Amino acid sequence: MRNLFCLLTVLISITACSKEQNNEASQAAVIVNTGNKFKDAAINKVKQANAGFSVGQAQCVVETLTKDGVYGLGEINQMKLGADAAKQNSGKLFQAYQDALKGCK
User: Fold this and answer.
1) What's the predicted TM-score (pTM) here?
2) Among residues 52, 58, 72, which one has the least CA distance to residue 103?
3) Dihedral sign, Cα of residue 88, residue 76, residue 78, residue 40
4) What's the confidence (pLDDT) of residue 26?
C-alpha cells in the first residue's frame, strides 16, 4: 500500500511540473493574438527570426507581403528563415521578404 501511495505521489508531481512547463512555453511562444492563428504564427515567426524587431514591425512585414495577394500566410509560415534561407526559399518570395524587412525597420 505504501508503494502505491509513493507511486501516485510521484506521478502527480510529474504531471503538475509538465503542465507548468507547457504553460510557460506556450505563453512565451504567443506574442500576438489577432484572432487569426495563421496570421499570428506568421507574425511570431518573423519577430523571432529578426532580433530586435517589435511586434509592430513583424506585423508590418506580414501585411506588406500579403497586401497584394501574391503571397499568403501559408507561404510565410512555410518559409525557412535560418542562415541559409536564401537557398531554401523561392527567389521571388525571399526577395519580397527582404524588401519588406527593409521597409518595416
Assistant:
1) 0.69
2) 58
3) positive
4) 47
